[in-house]
Amino acid sequence: MKFLLIGQGLAGTLMGFRLERAGHQVEYVDAPEQTAASAVAAGIINPITGRRFVKSWRIDELIPAARLLYTELEDFLGVSLWHPQPLIRTLYNRGDLNDWQARSADPGYSEYMEDEPATGRLPELTQPVFAYAGVRHAARVDVATMVAAFREKLIAEGRLTSGVFAYDQVPALLGADAGARNGNPAYDHIICCEGWRARFNPWFADLPHGGNKGEVLIVKTQAPLLNLMFKHRVFLVPLSDDTYWVGATSENQFSHEEPTAKNRTFLADRLAEVLTGTTYEIIDHRAAVRPTVKDRRMFLGTHPDWPQLHLFNGLGTKGASLAPCGSQWLADYLLAGKPLPEEVDIRRFNQPLR
Ligand SMILES: Cc1cc2nc3c(=O)[nH]c(=O)nc-3n(C[C@H](O)[C@H](O)[C@H](O)COP(=O)(O)OP(=O)(O)OC[C@H]3O[C@@H](n4cnc5c(N)ncnc54)[C@H](O)[C@@H]3O)c2cc1C
């Protein structure tokens, strides 16, 4: 079958890779001049999140699927993408420590939680903290490198049209008029993967699209510092030997997608509070919008009146861990008729699920 994917960020890349591997033809439209969340994300996979130390949704299933798919993509693209890395987080006070210890006694938690993690040079580089805790099975995915390498391949193979997709082309491309196929379709299926800009897609306008703007700093140090990810109010994530990702801010209300001076100061202040044992230089400041959904679950599924028009969106703050399983569920549904998990099926918002 022949597929057109609108958007080639993390969602479009993983979806297209799965379809190609299953023997299908895949073409893309993408607007590279727009900011994309995938170009800004650290790609952290964090099994234990939030102040209450809760296990991420379906994480036992998501991590093995992510490891498998990203390592397959490493071989396919010839780039390094999957970086298992310890994640150390600060426990700020006695209450945090008690909560952490209580949580680690809950069923299914102990394999992800470590009370006395190896901290390397962290104590000499950062301000003293009440206690450190370790999250096991954390990783970082180099999402930006993956999307860029995949894009290069698509361009070389003439399979990527650069520009903003015009949504009124959908019926003609599907060889349909008023919903009935009546000609030679250019594509058998169209899958919309536009990230937060899906809110401008009139075919799926009824869904409760959200958007959460995030800003990050990239800093460079004199010499390599850490080979672990550290969360102390903000995340400090090693990217290469001497550059670090620092972030991120989170804003549901925003008037533009550009980085702001206010958030640069906010992040720089947070970093200065924590990274006290070395000098560094801020070399970049980036912003993008996360595609969020109010119930924090993905958007997967098919347009109610157009059976060849589909959506893969809503990856929110956890795209790196969610997208490998999400793309598998959508591929199984499209290619083998397997039902989508109800929690991610877009029919949860407008129609009773059968
Ligand atoms: C600051 C920040 C930090 C983050 N950190 C992490 C993290 O550590 N771990 C994690 O798992 N997730 C993280 N995320 C979330 C993650 O980035 C997203 O979940 C994921 O990248 C979303 O991928 P996507 O493909 O849906 O959207 P995007 O990456 O935004 O890609 C959408 C693509 O579609 C294109 N497009 C849109 N409309 C059209 C159109 N009409 N025509 C043509 N092309 C179109 C866009 O140009 C873009 O290329 C972070 C996000 C941000 C902003």
Key structural traits:
354 residues; alpha+beta; FAD/NAD(P)-binding domain; 2 domains; 8-stranded mixed sheet; 6-stranded mixed sheet; 9 helices; 21 strands; 28% helix; binds flavin-adenine dinucleotide
Could you explain how this protein is built, in words?
The protein is of the alpha+beta class and 354 residues long. Helix content is 28%, strand content 26%. It has nine helices and 21 strands. The chain has helices at 10-21, 59-77, 94-104, 122-125, 143-156, 170-173, 261-274, 319-336, 347-350; strands at 2-6, 25-30, 44-45, 48-49, 54-55, 82-84, 87-91, 113-114, 131-135, 139-141, 160-162, 176-177, 180-181, 189-192, 212-221, 229-232, 234-240, 243-247, 280-290, 299-302, 309-313. The strands form five sheets. An eight-stranded mixed sheet has the order 8-9-7-16-17-18-15-19. Strands 11-2-1-14-21-20 form a six-stranded mixed sheet. A three-stranded antiparallel sheet has the order 3-10-6, covered by helices on one side. Helix 1 packs parallel to helix 8 and helix 2 (59-77) packs across helix 8 (319-336). The longest helix has 19 residues, at 59-77. The two termini are 27 Å apart. The protein binds flavin-adenine dinucleotide. Flavin-adenine dinucleotide binds next to helix 1, strand 2, strand 15, strand 19 and helix 8.
Percentage of residues in DSSP E strands: 25-35%
Derived from helix and strand composition plus strand pairing, the structural class reads: alpha+beta
Largest beta-sheet details: 8 strands, mixed
Order of helices and strands: EHEEEEHEEHEHEEHEHEEEEEEEHEEEHH
Give average pLDDT, whole number.
94
Give the termini distance in whole angstroms. Answer: 27 Å
Bound compounds, each kind once, are: flavin-adenine dinucleotide
